[in-house]
Amino acid sequence: xxxxxxxxxxxxxxxxxxxxxxxxxxxxxxxxxxxxxxxxxxxxxxxxxxxxxxxxxxxxxxxxxxxxxxxxxxxxxxxxxxxxxxxxxxxxxxxxxxxxxxxxxxxxxxxxxxxxxxxxxxxxxxxxxxxxxxxxxxxxxxxxxxxxxxxxxxxxxxxxxxxxxxxxxxxxxxxxxxxxxxxxxxxxxxxxxxxxxxxxxxxxxxxxxxxxxxxxxxxxxxxxxxxxxxxxxxxxxxxxxxxxxxxxxxxxxxxxxxxxxxxxxxxxxxxxxxxxxxxxxxxx
Length: 284
Fold this sequence. Notes:
The chain is an alpha+beta fold and 284 residues long.
């Protein structure tokens, strides 16, 4: 264990924490973030122990690392990093699906770009109005109708078409994401059940699960057909959102192309909200 690396990481997170967000009085502070005494109180330990951890003079247990992470309300990525620095695997649990402020800002600032935000298991957490304007995501009434991977392998979209090469890339990405998610969250019963069903229903997915393909680039192209019969071809890029264990899929067209003009027309006609949270019952 690199104790000094762990201590430095704890100190940086403590100094970067927002006291108000943690229910503490802001008042007049000489330094940013939390005091060691405040972190100790929130995490159930002494300020002296916090100091020893930050100075690399103490080897905290896995439970202590978890308590510090919870006290600071850090995202999954930071929690996993602290656990790794301490020499532990992060505690297993449910795939986090809370739409954090970073993901929300991303959706708001790129309102002219169709975009979705997914959790680590490829469940759609939120979309923007530009994405809904593409009109391809029909609802099936089935349990995992808002999971990207499940829809690709088990209930493909009629208005979503890919070349064989792009479909191969897209399928490889989905299988790789689910495999990584299940390794990191083995206790998530819903994720395990979905993977089992996908392996039963889709021979393509089962083949990829047993013999995964290497993923070279997290992007692929697809053609979306609207209700008026016109279509637009877009490239989707998967972009990680650090801290929240979420990812964004941004759909863009080649600059100056006919598809870019059509995309501007489609998105311009939408008048919905910049951020639309979704779930098993659809947009809400």
